[in-house]
Amino acid sequence: MKFLRVLCVLAVALCLTASVYAETQSVKVSGDLTMRSLFRNQYDYQSSPPEPDQPRTGLDSSWQSWLMSVAEIEIDADLTDNVQTVIRLVNQRDWNVWAKSDSATTGGFPNGRAAYTENDDEFDVMVDLAYVTLKDFIYSPLTVTIGRQDLWFGKGFIVGANLQNPGNGWNGSTGGNLTAPEYTAVWSFDAVKAVLDYDPWTITGVYSKIYEDAVQARDDVDLYGLNVGYKFDSYMAEAEAYWFWKADRGLDAYRNISRNTNDVHTFGLRGSFDPVDVVTVNLEGAYQGGEYVANRLQTTSRVRSAWALDVGTELRYFAEKYSWKPKFGAEFIYYSGNKPEDNTASDPGGQGTYTGWDPVYRGKFDSAIREFVGRFYYTGRYPANNDNFYSADDASYRNQFQMIFLGSLQPMDSLTLKANYNLFWNQCAYTIANDDKSLGFIGQEIDLTANWDYTEDVSFGLLCGWFVPGDVYYENMNKVTTDIVGTVKVSF
Description:
Elements: H1 2-23, E1 26-41, E2 64-78, E3 83-94, E4 98-100, E5 116-118, E6 126-134, E7 142-149, E8 189-198, E9 201-211, E10 221-231, E11 238-248, E12 264-276, E13 279-292, E14 302-303, E15 306-315, E16 327-335, E17 400-412, E18 415-425, E19 441-453, E20 458-469, E21 481-491
Antiparallel strand pairs: 1-2, 1-21, 2-3, 3-6, 4-5, 6-7, 7-8, 8-9, 9-10, 10-11, 11-12, 12-13, 13-14, 13-15, 15-16, 16-17, 17-18, 18-19, 19-20, 20-21
């Protein structure tokens, strides 16, 4: 009888397994390996490294060199009709980095490394993507995606990357094992997204949980959004209108002050079209309202009123006439700033309307160096301040005019060369200096990149970037920054 029961159990298990297997129509496994070597110099614009008792500024002034890698595995499964799942696992790390210990007797080896400890997290595997997509949910035009997913709207000017806290060892880090966190592969959001496809109209609603501390605490950060897009029949034209609400309660309340509301409501319009076949013009403008709280010492919130603009064009006329396929473009970007007299060191809460732009979750980055000042790095002249997220007076995402000139060539089918030249100015003097010297030309940056497709699966890349500080950097803190990155990428 026992043998018979075992046979019956096995038969039932086989039947269940067969039925479950039959529901999986196809499974695709893909991934990539990316290895980088990095060489950097003067990332804080100082002529020499800070003294041991002085705060560090991201990377030291002297030459730094290291290697890093990112490994990704993705599994895509088509289940029953109109049901798809995606899981992507990521390991990203600097190669074998050891950290200085507080005690010289901590850990170590007899070869002189007694004052250092190994990074125990470098082989951690993170879940980058884990979501299910339900097509024709309830009725045919509706698609719902639930779980950890990438969110990208338009050109990523407002929402594209969840990089609010991805630095080295910071809480909530997605790039904590990387000395260069801008190269993190984890840009994803924990979100629910619903898309109504009424071609040529598309309506998208999204909710994302950005930050959750204690469940019972009122200190969350959430993102809500609505995007309405339309595609025209001519001129390759498209347009969209959007509203995103970053409901930020993440700032700690202080003493008896319960006001920690730091909401950002972003309203915007974006469009692009080809007036002729070889020219594309794009335009995006956005306004921010809501409330602003700089830090936990501020007793009352301030009203927000900020603006941003992105205008660009691409010319492909010569690409159709010459074998090297040259392309050219230009772009202008503006982020509003806050007046120094409205936010001083003696009154960090400031007064009046706050007019500084909030980057929300921008995923669009147009330069290799300057874009990440105030987000991942800060300079010797303008160190980190007490903003409620990692920031600095000269942060690249507010109080800035940016002009970009772009070009690309293809000397052969497998080789692409690109260059961009960036110019930066500020609108208001930087608060920490609060003098005429801190108003004017921020600097210029040249980025050169080459990408060689060795095979369909393997590519090699080289980036050389230089940022030359302008008039707002002085007092021996205006040295040229260099960034050289070599890349090998294998996709499968």
